[in-house]
Amino acid sequence: MDVRVVDHPLAKARLSTMRDARTNSAAFRAALQELTLMLMYEATRDAEVAVEPIHTPVARTDGYRLANPPLLVPVLRAGLGMADQAHRLIPEAQMGFVGLARDETTLQPTPYLESLPADLSGRPVFVLDPMLATGGSMVHTIRILTERGASDVTAICTLAAPEGVRKLEESGLPVRVVTASVDERLNESGYIVPGLGDAGDREYGAV
Length: 207
Ligand SMILES: O=P(O)(O)OC[C@H]1O[C@H](OP(=O)(O)OP(=O)(O)O)[C@H](O)[C@@H]1O
Ligand SMILES: O=c1cc[nH]c(=O)[nH]1
Ligand SMILES: [Mg+2]
Prior knowledge:
This protein is an alpha/beta fold. The chain has helices spanning 9-19, 25-43, 80-89, 136-147, 162-171, 199-204; strands at residues 3-5, 49-55, 60-66, 71-76, 94-95, 97-102, 109-115, 125-128, 131-132, 153-160, 175-182, 185-186, 192-193. It has a single domain (2-46, 69-204), classed as 3-Layer(aba) Sandwich (Rossmann fold), CATH 3.40.50.
């Protein structure tokens, strides 16, 4: 499985702002949006382009656009903080939604929302979730997508744990990961260490 770690200095700086326990919700959301821009930029580096002639005020030249606009899938709640920024970067993308809450005792994802196109065959899909921890939520989401025919899935995660990366790899699902960091480990409560805490709570407040 392809795991791309975006370690650009600006990505590291935004991630540090998100990690810092002193960062308030507004600054956390702003840093997440800026980091999402960088991760999406890197994740679309090899996207297929269509070429068509355009006219500048001076001459005719080749113009480019995405040949196959993707589906963006934020995983609620925390992934919602990445959705607008990714959509601004790819305005022609469609958006679907998955809602999951991890049971903090069993660490299993509990689904509560699924709003996706029925047929995803031939369509690139970008799943937006800041956190890949045990990997349970991401595996659940990608299974839903592959059941609809998706075969080209990219997980955009600001942070990943080695355990989650391993679980995705062992799942055999057609996915690659783009992240700003693969951290050290999970702690006994299933939180990424050093991590940044609960991403959804830091964006929107504790539930
Ligand atoms: O890899 P996993 O162990 O499954 O954990 C990762 C999941 O946990 C967080 O969501 P959470 O369940 O806290 O929901 P929230 O976004 O509403 O806070 C995060 O945004 C992922 O979806
Ligand atoms: O560290 C973690 C693990 C799961 N979900 C989070 O929001 N943070
Ligand atoms: Mg949460």
